[in-house]
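QA checklist item 7 of 12: single-chain prediction sanity check.
[x] sequence parsed
[x] length recorded as 212
[x] structure emitted
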Amino acid sequence: MARIFSWAAQDSERLTTVAGLRGSKGRHGAFAQVTADTAAEAAAAEAAGIEMIVCRARSVAAVRQGSQRLFVTAALGFAEAVTDEEILRTAFKALTDGADAVITARRLPIVSLLASEDIPVMGHLGFVPRKSTWVGSVRAFGKTADEAVELYHRFRRLEEAGAFAVEAELVPAPLMAEISKRTGLVTVSLGSGPGAEVMFLFTSDICGETDR
């Protein structure tokens, strides 16, 4: 357990921190992350031994009512925050509500904008659902040599932009393992095999709440 001061200047305890996640590089499956949008889901995650959750930015305050110890990453929605000013305002609101980091799939200058304020930023690479029209279908990204090389360069650019971590979705497991060895980013595997520091599952899938 780590003692920190939150972005709201509150004396707090966390199951892990940005420094703790960075220190886990190379320890595959060191942490688990699930989704949560309610206090009940956050409390259940902590009780189950999960260290991290990701939620919508607007849900951070509710999630914190369920757990004060989980590492919370707030997802910055595309529609809720569009301009640079709106993105910064939304990010700082999520942080002062109790988030420890933010995640965005926006352009690299946005990552740099957030990182320049010392906001811990997680990017999203591989298959990005809202951008799936570019790849033509729901599918793994990185199965061809050209895609694998392109993805590796995207990891490098994201790290150079100032991100500390990346959610890697539907990346072929062998490729994920190789890229993870070659990046300073904390890697979060969402359907990308065991070669990452953080394993990510949807709570709705764990609980059998979806047809998938």
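[x] summary fact logged: The longest strand covers residues 121-126.
[ ] second reviewer sign-off
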